[in-house]
């Protein structure tokens, strides 16, 4: 028995909908799960980002400021190794990751103290940028 052209065109071809192994094709959205953010760089970026987001929501002066992260400063100050650079003219703050993470007090190098050190550096740098003391960064702080 011979098939006619009309019957061949009407029947769906298996290869159009299924892959060569008979399964539906996988969507491009399905990927293997990504590893959790547990590296120092990822954690540092996450802590800086959350602190900056909070500060920008409270202080409109900080919204146009670029917050950058660098590994180390190019030069040491006479006072020691800086943890950040404030550039008001360029509207930017540069946070130096290695000094912030490594120059903590001995015995305070666990994840909780590291987060406090990172967020503290962000708050102090932002306070220096807008000309305030770090404890004044709380919008509910009473004015003197």
TrEMBL record:
Biased composition (Basic residues): 15-24
SUPFAM superfamilies listed in its UniProt record: Metalloproteases ('zincins'), catalytic domain (SSF55486)
Region (Disordered): 1-34
Protein's recorded name: Metallopeptidase family protein
Provenance organism: Microbacterium capsulatum
């Amino acid at each position: 028995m011979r098939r006619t052209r009309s019957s061949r065109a009407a029947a769906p071809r298996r290869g159009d909908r299924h892959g060569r192994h008979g399964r539906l094709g996988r969507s491009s959205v399905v990927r293997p799960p990504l590893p959790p953010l547990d590296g120092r760089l990822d954690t540092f970026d996450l802590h800086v980002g959350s602190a900056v987001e909070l500060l920008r929501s409270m202080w409109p002066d900080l919204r146009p400021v670029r917050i950058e992260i660098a590994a180390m400063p190019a030069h040491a100050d006479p006072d020691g190794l800086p943890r950040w650079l404030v550039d008001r003219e360029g509207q930017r703050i540069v946070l130096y990751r290695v000094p912030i993470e490594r120059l903590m007090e001995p015995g305070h190098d666990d994840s909780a103290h590291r987060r406090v050190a990172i967020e503290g550096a962000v708050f102090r740098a932002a306070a220096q940028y807008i000309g305030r003391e770090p404890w004044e960064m709380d919008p509910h702080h009473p004015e003197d």
